[in-house]
Amino acid sequence: MLVGWELLARSGWVDPVFTGSPSGVGSALGTLVSDADFWAVHAYATATGFLAGWALAVGVGLPLGLFMGWYGPVRDLFEPLVMAFYSTPRIALVPLFVVWFGFGLEYKLVVVFLAAVFPVLLNTMAGVRAADQRLVRMSRSFGGSPAQVLRTVVLPGTLPYALTGVRQSIAHGLTGVVVGEVFSAGAGVGYLMNQAAQLFRTDTLFAVVVLLAATATVLNEAMLRLEARLLRWRPEELSAPRASSA
């Protein structure tokens, strides 16, 4: 595919101004990674916005999903609001966030948080509700309090689901921060992509996409290794839980 793409661009069958070329993308990628301003300004702005929003999403999604799954009154209280926000296209709220929070870190934090929190919350809640009821009943029959049952039975069974949600939230959070920067930001990878598109610098645009794909792949692989380490206690024949629709 890459060879065909290069040949089409060099032969004039396609206009490289609109399609770029592998050699041009490689050159643009080398220019980006060797540019100190790219790392100090754009990559730093995107990384801080993503990490702040993602950490907040995990910090809120895990306990809220746990309590919504375990305690019926908490679920009844929050589930309508959660599903209303989950069903609303978050991109439609971006102009409102710009008005409220401006163009800085707070704006990116909110966009990333709303993009990343639902996979964590919904997968954690699904894990709690999928707890083995036989083990729950046995624990209660031996005098286990609700807190003990939650800690010793439900939490270990929920962990695979929660980690799956955390891993999904990375991709959602990266999408959120880039989309937010494309719409409105003074710096960041999304801002750089928007500038490249307006100036028809297609090679630079593809180069940024390659960097984002590489970043997402590395983070996903890191989460997979963390999952494998934390779930070493599980029997090997148990398959990983299916991710929820988040």
Overview of this structure, please?
- The protein has 246 residues and is mainly α.
- The chain is 80% helix and 0% strand.
- The protein has eleven helices and no strands.
- α3 (22-33) crosses α11 (202-230).
- It starts with a helix and ends in a 16-residue tail after the last helix.
What's the total count of β strands? Answer: 0
- Element pattern in H and E: HHHHHHHHHHH
Sheet having the most strands: none
Tally of contiguous helical segments: 11
Residue stretches low in confidence (pLDDT < 50, at least 5 long) are: none
Break the fold down into its secondary structure elements and pairings.
Elements: H1 2-11, H2 16-19, H3 22-33, H4 36-70, H5 72-87, H6 94-101, H7 105-129, H8 133-141, H9 146-183, H10 189-198, H11 202-230
Helix pairs in contact: 3-11, 4-5, 4-7, 4-9, 4-10, 6-7, 7-9, 8-9, 9-10, 9-11, 10-11
Summarize the structure.
With 246 residues, the chain is mainly α.
Keywords:
mainly alpha; 246 residues
